[in-house]
Every structure is written in C-alpha cells, then in structure tokens.
Amino acid sequence: MPHQATPAMFSGAQTPIALTSVHISEKSWLGRLQARNASATLPHVISKLQETSMQNLRNLRDGVEAEHIGNPNSDAEIHMTLEAIAWEDARTGTTEFDGFVDECLELFEALQQEDGYLNSWGQRQADYEHFSDAAMGHELFTGSHLLKAAVAFSRVGRGERLMSVATKWADLVVREFGPGKDGYDGHAGVEGALVEFYRETQNKDYLETARAILDRRGQGKLRSGVLGPIFFQDHEPVREAVEALGHAARQQYLDASVADVLAHTDDDELRKALVARWESAHLTKLYITGGLGSRHFDESFGAPYELPASRAYAETLASVADVYVNQRLLQITGNSRYADAIEKVFYNALPAAVGKDGVTFFSSNPLQVRSRQRDEDNNRIERAEWLNHSTGPTSLTRLASSMGAYVATVAEKTLSIQQWFDGSIDLPEQIGEGRLVIETDYPNSGTIKIRLEGTPVPGARLRMRVPAWCEKHSYNGRSALVIDGFFDQPLTEDFETTLEFHMPARFVFAHPRVDAVRGCRALLRGPVVYCAEGVDNPQIENLVFHTEAEVLPAEDGELPLIQVPANFRRKPQALYSRTMVAVDPDVRTTTLVPYHTWANRETSPMRVWLPTV
Predict the structure, then answer these.
(1) Where are the beta strands (DSSP E) in 91-243?
(2) Distance (Å, rounded) from C-alpha 254 to C-alpha 594?
(3) What is the distance between the alpha carbons of residues 400 and 85, in angstroms, rounded to a whole number?
(4) What is the pTM of this model?
C-alpha cells in the first residue's frame, strides 16, 4: 500500500511517496512557493471565504433570507480550502487554521440533512428538487470536494468528524446515482472523488458508483442550451471520445476521474480513449505555458492548433486539474512524459496565476496583452484580490500544499525522482533506511547534487528524471545512458553523484498550424517560459527580436533575467503593402522576465511569442 499522506493513493507502475516523507527546503524555488502559500495565500483565501461562501452557510443556519453569494458550487471553495489545510498540516504540522476547520465542521454538522444532502445553494431553495439541475447545479461536483477534503484529513489522522459528514453524503450519491440508477453531473469530478473514498474506506459501493456514473456520460441528456453538449463532454461516451473537447477544466476533471477508475479496472477501451484525449490536449491544444483552453465564450478547447496568444483563456483550474490527470497517468504507466507535463505547469501556469504578494490572482492566463487592452472580468490584465468564481485560488492552495506528493515515486526496490527540488526524501521501507539529500537551485541552474545518508536494501536503485527539454546532460561529468527519460543507477551505501542539465536560453517555434504566432518564437530556459513586458521595453509592439540571448546573473531568490537584442520596425506607409516593413538599423537591448512574474509591477503590454528577424 502507498504511504498514507498523499492524494491519489494507489499503486500502479509507480506509487507516490507520502508528502510527509518529502522535505522541500524554503530556499528552493518550489519551497518558496509553498511557504508563500502557507503564509499569505491560504490566510487570504480563508478571509475572503468568510465574507462569501461561509456566509452562505451561516445564513442558511440562521434562517437569514439573503441572495446566495457566488456560483452554485461556492461550497466547493470551502472544501478545497479544507483539503489545502489538511495537506499543510501534513507538511508542517500547523494548527494556525484549526479555528476555520472547527467552524466548518460545526456548520456542516448543523446543516446536513437526514438523507446526507449538504449544499448551501440547493438547500436555500425551498422548492428545489435536489440534483435536478444536472447541467449547471454542480451539486455532485461540489460534494466531490467534500469527499476529497475528508480523505485528506483522514490521511493526516484528523478525519473522524469530517469523514462522518462525507460518508453520509457519499452514501446518498450511491443511493441516487449508483448501479441501476440514472443521471450524472454537468461538471465531472465526483467519480474520482468516489474512487478516493473507496481507497480510504475499502467500501466497493463507492468504486462501483463511480464506474456507473462514468459509463452513463456522453448520452446527451444534460439540458445544455446555448453551450451545447460538447461543453459538458456529453456528446460522446468516455470510451469513444478521443479528442479533448468542451470546457477545458471539465475535460481535465473528467479525465482525472477516468484515470482513477482505470487504476482499479482492466479496461483497455477506457485506457486507449484516455491516452488519446491526453495526446489530443497535450500534442495539439496545449499552450507553451501549460495552459489549456483557447476560447473565452465557453472556456473551452478549440480546434487542434487553435492557440491564440492574446485570447488564450487558459483557466487556472484547468491547469491544476491537468496536474491531477498527469500524476495519475504517471502512477498507472510510469511514463516520464507525464512528469514533464507536470513540470511545465509547476514553473509556468501555476505560479503565474498568483501574484508575488500571494494574495492576488488570475483566472484566465493570456500569453499576450496589448496596449490599451481592457481589464475584463474573465480576461484580466491585473490580478484581483478575489474572483467571482474562486475555485482557481482555492485549487491553487491545495495543489501548492500537496506539492511534495508529486516529486517522487517508488516501485518495488526502485525510487524515482520525478520533480527536482532542494531538500530530502525519507527512504521508503522497501528502499532502505535514512534519507536521500538533494542540493540544487533548480531551475536557476541545472546542477543537482545527490547523496545518500543511510543504508539501502540490497538491489535498491535510483532513477533520476532527465527533463524532456534538456538536450545536453551529464552524470558525474560524463555522458550516461538515459532509459525511458531517466538516469537509472544502483543505490549503494556510499551513493553520491552530480547531475548537470545544461540550461542555455533557447528560442522555439510553434507548430506551423498555430496560425496566431507564425513568424514568432518563444524564449525558454530550462522549464521556464519567458516573456517581454512593456514596463521594461517601451513600444514593445514595434520591436523585432533577434535570436541571441544573454542570461544575466540572478538576484537572490529570483530566476535570471534574459537580454535579447532587438530593432524597431519602421513605420509602414500603408496598412497593407506588397513588401515587408523594414526595421531600423539601430539595435537596442530588451529584457525578458519569467512568464510567471508578469503583471507584478505595473500594467503594461506583454508577449510570450516574439516577432523575430
């Protein structure tokens, strides 16, 4: 069995290491992100919930007649935050948020109906038939996060009261939606939550109900209105759908749930369809930053290679859900491409969604902002302290708190490092006793030192992921064989090694079918995507960039800036002409910053894709 304190607790080709066994130092890049989450983001989120979603519960308890605050799934924001608190407790042992947890428990216990129903939006409507608004009511989706929060608390040894509430709700779902029943939710997610609940309780009713709900999907039964069935992934059964379509976050929640069910079944049709949708999303519809969803109208995937930079929706929630899809597929298959996909989100989409202050957020994440662009509710050019639909910030908190659960896996006598960080890993019992120490300032540099402090079991091995972006690498100063994306070496008592992933700045083209960025290139260094901002580069929209780059020394705690020479375009004589506009011969120096840092200084134009000479 896997270690207890981890999401997605199952053994496939790989088993996750408990986040309690992973110690990410606060001097590392991931560690600073976690520390900011704990000290700033999580307290801020709780304070905002007290004004919004928690007030819905208090109004219901006190019989106050008031409009529901937020969306129908507002309770899910509370549940996500509870899950974040549980993982933060496992990570640091904090008791800072216990008052919030106690208040939630008291409200849940006071408001839960006898049949197990618990939903402030559904309960405030006296004449509402529960679960009747399957398309947009989000009741199963909302409750799915109650289950996940309860499982998280159970795995850190504090779950008795919340598990009692969640069990009543899960049993209601079994009665209403189990085998032989009908119906499903417009926003997938309950299926995977039920599987997690099965893993925690060993009650197979939850697994069978999850499978039954998945099997019903795609029948076109939801009242889809102007959005259409594709928006809800209700156009085709999950075993037949091979393209990522519709609302991007819904698709990723669905596929995380499919992976959860797949982990406990031998269903080849389900597996093939899931992998096909993953390849559709990641090989033809993924932004270079790890964002998903190119259309604003319905927050959806577009056609293959439809990836506009300035109109990217790239919802934060979709990228968070994509991490869950990739982690489950990594555990099921062991394929390193899923770890590479997680890394892309960790260093780009995830940190871009929250400001350096830890208390301001983006929901959509464009790759270009134009001069005089309006700041719209669903297309912001400035981060906001709170959002009308705040599952983005609350999802960020739970992923950041649980990040240690995504960095390493184990299979028999082999330990695999999937994500790089500065810190240590307590050896799982089947690997030996002691700890593996990792010293690095990745992704500032690609130098990684690893040593074993302890005693491995005979035959133990260590696999160290070589990132897909890395074109030149060394193991103890020499070239070494990379097997399935990993250095694979015996783990001996005197084990000590130095890895070097060479990290030059590199310019990349998009696929020729990505019409929106033809004639442009993006600049990356290691896993980090860079962008140009108008605050550093006046008249950015008239610049044409060279494809040379100088990496500047990094300031303490920051990633390096990169300087790129550029020319101004000469003013064209006409809007359209038969010749290309010439550029001014004078070369000037531009400064590019990591994409995840944009919009932290002042509002200005920004672009990831750079017109090049």
Answers:
(1) none
(2) 31
(3) 11
(4) 0.97
